[in-house]
Amino acid sequence: MNTGILVTGGAGFIGSNFVLHWILAGKGRVVNVDALTYASNLGNLASIEGDPDHVFVHGNICDAELMARTLAEHRPRAIVHFAAESHVDRSIMGPDAFLKTNIDGTFTLLQAARAYVATLTEEEREAFRFVHVSTDEVYGTLGPGDPAFSETTPYAPNSPYAASKAASDFLGRAWFHTYKLPVLITNCSNNYGPYQFPEKLIPLIITHALTGKPLPIYGDGLQIRDWLFVTDHCKAIVEVLEKGVVGETYNIGGNNQRSNLEVVKTICSLLDELMPESPYTPHAQLITYVKDRPGHDRRYAIDATKIGRELGWKPEESFETGMRKTIQWYLSNAEWIESVTGAAYQEWVTKNYTDRKQKAEG
Length: 362
Ligand code: NAD
Ligand code: DAU
Hints:
With 362 residues, the protein is α/β, with parallel strands linked by helices. It has a domain at 5-191 and 229-255 and 297-317: NAD(P)-binding Rossmann-like Domain (Rossmann fold, 3-Layer(aba) Sandwich), CATH 3.40.50. The chain is built from 13 helices and 13 strands. The chain has helices at 13-24, 64-74, 88-93, 96-117, 122-127, 160-179, 201-210, 230-243, 260-274, 305-311, 319-332, 334-340, 343-361; strands spanning 5-8, 30-34, 54-58, 78-81, 129-135, 183-188, 191-192, 215-218, 224-226, 228-229, 249-252, 257-259, 287-290. It has a seven-stranded parallel beta sheet with strand order 3-2-1-4-5-6-11, with helices on both faces. Strands 7-10 form a two-stranded parallel ribbon. Strand 5 (129-135), helix 6 (160-179) and strand 6 (183-188) form a beta-alpha-beta unit.
């Protein structure tokens, strides 16, 4: 066994931020397995191109033979599992890929990890870790006065995405209890920051505002999410990997509950400030209400007391500093935006929003 780790989904939003953070912090080798779906972008990793500590493997986590071969060849000390289909709206339109990757893929990876761990020495087995990266959406939805989700909140997933992630969490839990695979599970709130594909709320609103397109708000816009800057999530995962107790679950959140309308208005005000010459200032004039997401969860909030108390993690960015950094990153990376908003992306925008607009008007 070497000192490196294996990451799945490291060409996606959080995975690529994690790989960059890991390499820049000099933490050793990363073998990065990614199927390069629509949500991925190898360009996110351009700054570490040629770095001998980053090994990219183009492959699917559902491919048992590939996963076994990759583990045997690189002999990592840990797996950090990010790979997933991650967008709720896409899961509503086409749940199949979510069940395939999030459930079958996680199952395949857990089995491959089990077989690999059996080849290790006792000392190596003791040190091995499998970090399963999951979401707060598995807990369902909160009312306005409900306490935030803790690690003991019962699972109540409401979307096909959340159900598939809940199933994968249960597989991880069972592989720990039954096979003693050293699994740790993290359940995190909404992330934002550099390299997020503009199908998710924050980058979609920024990229639409920059080109004067309508800023679509689902329903009344009063749904609440708990926002965390992506680098803070990556740092929390490192803490869980290095110091977490196997078999445990850790909730990760930013303690930044905001309604969607507040988030969109914050983006608009920051753009007004940073781009006073824009023909679209004031950007809030672009806000447009559209038909709601079916089964839309009303509120998420994370109680991150356990990871703070036991592992000493806390977020470093406030919502204000994180949002400013994020908008500045998108303003400085026009080429990146162009590279991810081609024909396939426009097709998605048409598919998701044309129907909503017609329904909102009708
Ligand atoms: P993303 O959609 O941006 O990236 C997912 C990556 O996984 C892509 O690079 C994609 O190519 C890869 N992938 C998909 N299917 C694959 C397969 N079958 N085999 C190999 N690679 C595959 O997702 P993200 O937002 O970076 O989320 C990463 C993880 O974190 C997911 O497990 C998600 O559930 C979880 N999470 C996300 C958030 C959030 O706010 N984005 C919050 C909490 C947890
Ligand atoms: O809570 C963690 C989850 O956060 C992750 O597990 C998911 O992978 C991630 O996609 C995210 O899920 P959400 O559904 O909360 O994120 P999204 O950015 O799609 O939407 C955020 C909120 O904004 C949600 O209430 C829906 C709303 N929304 C979204 C879009 C894309 C709009 O009002 N308009 C939009 O155009």
